[in-house]
Specification:
heterodimer, A: mainly alpha, three-stranded antiparallel β-sheet, two-stranded antiparallel sheet, 5 strands, 6% strand, B: mainly alpha, Ribosomal Protein L9, domain 1, 6 strands, globular
């Protein structure tokens, strides 16, 4: 095999890889209402295993020259170089959002684009793995690389699942609050919003059928607000303390005791959530 | 339940380990491997005996299959840790350690102890450092108030360890300040 031949074959194949736009994956579709997380995970994996849009890998493999033994190699060309230069890869970014979501008492804005990009990438890698594994010409050395790629796909999927489950848990917990608070809606994806609404509906139905209908009407309310008693609809507790880690120098924030705090880069503070909420939304701090 | 109860309150050490394993470490490969595109970037090519930087999870994977040696990070050796331990015991504040040192040290010592000069000594130093720092963070609990507590140089594993007590403690202080008569204590 000559070098020139290989190079030109790579160049020929490139357009096929770029033909697939990175953000076509509609993650909101994943969050189907009434679907238990377990089933959803199944769906995701199915999705991963299915052939993706665009020129299929099989087709590309068929068209590839016989000596082509490096399909995973540098399919991502310039994107990869950009990632190496950047301080945070998109997976690390996502890990940061995952941890923020885990620690924050409130529901944070959905990272739909980032999630779509990662899912797309993971799906592509999983597809490559599947095809290469089935290919009889794959060498022993190649199998080892496939194993590494597969391992990474599983790591990424683990984080994605945990992220979505964390959000689902908050959505279920605050479903009624979400229904009443339009400001929260823009922080949810369409699928999550539908899920929250339908969750409230089912809950109302079962509560009515099981208990409420046999109670006198004044006691049937699910949203009572009486003085001296905690309200029935609970929103996120923004007073809950969180550990914030400053990613850069932050503008001053006002603390509950009246003083102001200016976080320096790298500073770690334990403080109520509402104090650093704006810093967190702007990405100036992360929760650890 | 969308998320198990145990995961709602805190993060598992194994999850912190997963995050830490994204960091890069130097290895001396024993097998050749082409440059490979991963989701987090392209790594390789591996050309023994040239050193190469890969994420820790790749390094441990290769190490477990005896396909590489791991070069310990600059802070994971006896001199550095000895120095930190003496600072830790002399000064009242936490000395600067890498944010995820506990996770990384554990992973590397677990799979690649033969790549360290004196793994047992390193382990015992790490343990001493951990105990010295733990004593300080317990003391820090007395400084807790309702508004803010600065924790310079605390590492991720240590934060996770003190999280339940500190969060609970501050939560109670917040409620006491907001509502001194305790009428809404249970809200």
């Amino acid at each position: 095999m000559s070098r020139g031949h290989k190079k030109s074959s790579l160049r020929e194949r490139r357009p096929a890889f770029y033909a697939v736009t990175p953000c076509t994956y509609n993650h909101s579709r994943r969050l189907r209402p009434f679907t238990r997380p377990e089933t959803m995970e199944g769906d995701w994996l199915d999705e991963l295993r299915q052939p993706r849009a665009g020129p299929s890998f099989v087709q590309r493999a068929r068209d590839a020259p016989d000596d082509d033994d490096a399909i995973i190699r540098d399919d991502f060309g310039p994107a990869v170089i950009a990632q190496e230069d950047a301080e945070e890869t998109s997976f690390q970014q996502f890990i940061r959002h995952w941890m923020n979501e885990r620690h924050a008492p409130d529901i944070l804005p959905a990272q739909e684009d980032l999630l779509a990009r990662l899912l797309d990438h993971a799906r592509k890698q999983a597809n490559d793995v599947k095809l290469l594994r089935e290919h009889p010409d794959t060498s022993e050395d190649e199998h080892f690389r496939i194993m590494l790629v597969q391992t990474e796909v599983e790591r990424v999927m683990f984080v994605i699942r945990s992220y979505v489950r964390t959000r689902l848990q908050k959505i279920e917990k605050y479903a009624r609050y979400i229904g009443m608070t339009p400001e929260v809606h823009e922080r949810l994806s369409q699928g999550e919003l539908d899920y929250a609404q339908q969750y409230v509906q089912i809950l109302d139905t079962i509560l009515t059928n099981a208990v409420l209908q046999s109670l006198p009407p004044p006691q049937q309310g699910l949203d009572d607000k009486t003085a001296d008693i905690p309200p029935m609809i609970q929103g996120p507790d923004k007073q809950r303390p969180v550990f914030a880690h400053a990613r850069q120098a932050c503008p001053p924030v006002r603390l509950p005791d009246g003083s102001t705090m200016e976080m320096e880069k790298g500073q770690i503070s334990l403080t109520p959530y509402y104090v650093i909420e704006q810093l967190l939304l702007r990405g100036e701090v992360e929760l650890v | 339940m969308a998320l198990p109860q145990s995961l709602m309150v805190s993060v598992m050490p194994s999850e912190l380990e997963l995050i830490a394993c994204e960091q890069l470490v130097e290895i001396i490969p024993l097998v050749a491997m082409e440059k490979t595109a991963f989701i987090s970037g392209a790594y390789g090519p591996l050309r023994p005996p040239a050193r190469c930087k890969v994420p820790i999870w790749i390094a441990t994977n290769l190490k477990l299959k005896k396909k590489c040696h791991i070069v310990p990070p600059s802070w994971l050796n006896i001199e550095y840790l000895q120095d930190r331990l003496s600072r830790e015991t002399t000064y009242p504040e936490f000395s600067a350690m890498p944010f995820r040192f506990a996770e990384i040290a554990k992973v590397l010592l677990d799979v690649a102890s033969d790549d360290f000069q004196n793994a047992d000594k390193i382990r015992s130093l790490l343990k001493d450092i951990r105990e010295a720092r733990q004593a300080k963070s317990r003391e820090g609990l007395t400084k807790l108030d309702h508004s803010e507590l600065s924790l310079p140089n605390l590492s991720s594993m240590e934060i996770n360890e003190i999280r339940p007590h500190f969060v609970k403690g501050m939560e109670s202080l917040v409620k006491l300040v907001k509502d001194p008569e305790g009428r809404h204590m249970e809200s």
